[in-house]
Amino acid sequence: SDDEDAEDPTPIAMYETTNGNGTIVLTQGDFHRLNRGGWLNDRLIDMALARIFSNLAPDLQQRVCILGTFFYKKFGKVVRDDADQDTLVDAASKWLRHVDFDALDIVIVPIHQSAHWSVAILCNFQRLLARGDRSR
């Protein structure tokens, strides 16, 4: 059945990202999801965003961060667990320790909610940081 095909874990392709998100392994099931009526999953979204990033000019790559699909899912869980601000900052800092936010102009966050994908694009990120940090 189509549902079983979409879950086939047989690896068929690997893509080494240039945005710091590691290697994406695509499976036979991922490719079945690309058929009409298929539902996109995390790997397909990560792959598409990684391909977009790899096609950016090198100077623009230095100013753009595309977070993996895991970020919103993990961060959203901490928020839903009603964590205090220090816990939120600690969690985000741990997950994003490799990101130099001071060098960024744009941060892209893929979001999956209620079976739908969207993307948040945070522009002028350095100004957002400065506004949030009252010590600057």
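Next protein, fold it too.
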Amino acid sequence: MAKRHVHPQRDKIPQETMKDECHIHGPGYPSPLEAMKGPREEIVYLPCIRRNTGTEGPDYLATVDVDPKSRTYSQVIHRLPMLHVGDELHHSGWNACSSCYADACKKRDKLILPSLYSSRIYIIDVGHNCRAPRIHKVIEPSELHEKCDSANPHTTHCLANGEVMISTIGDPRGNAKGSFVLLDGETFEVKSTWEKKSDSVPFGYDYWYQPRHNVMISTEWGAPKAIEKGFRLTDLEAGMYGHSIHVWDWTSHTLIKSIDLGDDGLIPLEVRFLHNPDASQGFVGCALRSSIFRIYKTEDGTWATHKVIQVPSKKVTGWMMEEMPGLITDILISLCDRYLYFSNWLHGDIRQYDISDPCNPKLVGQVFVGGSLLKDGNVKVVDEDPNCQPEPLVIKGTRVEGGPQMIQLSLDGKRLYCSTSLYSTWDNQFYTCMVKKGSVLLQIDVDTNNGGLKVNKNFICDFGKEPNGPVLAHEVRYPGGDCTSDIWI
């Protein structure tokens, strides 16, 4: 059995203070629309990656002040270093969220922080001091390997029964394998896989569940051994990247069907259902062909897809291929279910679509925040107006390197946060200047009435100015939950 780390500070806490008190209700909000009335965010958490940057030391969790009334606005106010070097922190999730709203004894006080490369999982205590988190426990990679034959954990969601579920994208040998690991929500012991052993799928990545329709949808990235080398066309041709989504029976934990999205659906990454728990549709962003597919329940109760958005590739010179895809790497849906947002990491733009008619999304907002098509860069777009290449974005004297990657929306829908790092190996391949100078966190102002996006020139958190050298900041998470962490049941 692998040795587990328990933070020494926790041992000093009186036992009676460690017990969660029951309140009127559990964490989060009773509905997505009620969540929109929640308080404005004052701090956010981002994992900061040192791996493959040339700087020494472990990754860390940064707490960033996003309160415009604060003297430390847009600055890192706390850094929690991990215990090992080379983890590659990536995404995060909660021990409890709005799916546990009916359980008055549940409390959102632990941030689950998986490491995509090392397969180590950190349990972070944010309950004692949300502005200065601390390590509560560490789950070593051997526990995932031995109990679940799984590795490379990615997406974390809490479940209404108190468990925590984390998707994984590989096996311990670096091969592709889509699976789901269950943790006990109190002890954070690795329990088992969620799916039946015979139902693991060829690839894994993200997932979303919708219990009122007894369904979960999961997506695919690629084989860890291929991802780690950087993107190569030979690996794509060798079938080391996915192009399907998987439909699961939520109650029986069994695979119902897999839907092949074809060439237009290569590398389907983030999946989001509409937040209304009665909704029977959602969207998935497919990175390599820069397309968005709608996922929906048909009249006969089966699940189907069709493409509703296509971002055309650009014909270019001075790049690794003759055509450059937008590379959709993140998508999200506003809590009111009116707007869909996504980032084109290579083209450099963030887009806002009105999805009041989910079958026919309408582009209503677009803003460029970096990317690979800048006017002063080496890449030139051919057969198009030269003005299609944007000027570099400079905020408070800092030039934004890299492209828009992870995005997070405020509860009221009026502010969109954007970080610029994807994965350290791919960052080094596509944006070497960002790796040298550090990534950034930006804030985009959103017109929620008519649609529209505008960069807030008063906000930039520059991770190139960190005390021990530049780092790569990734996913944004709010202490009270947000539109990509919380699921209503």
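About the second fold: The mean pLDDT is 94.
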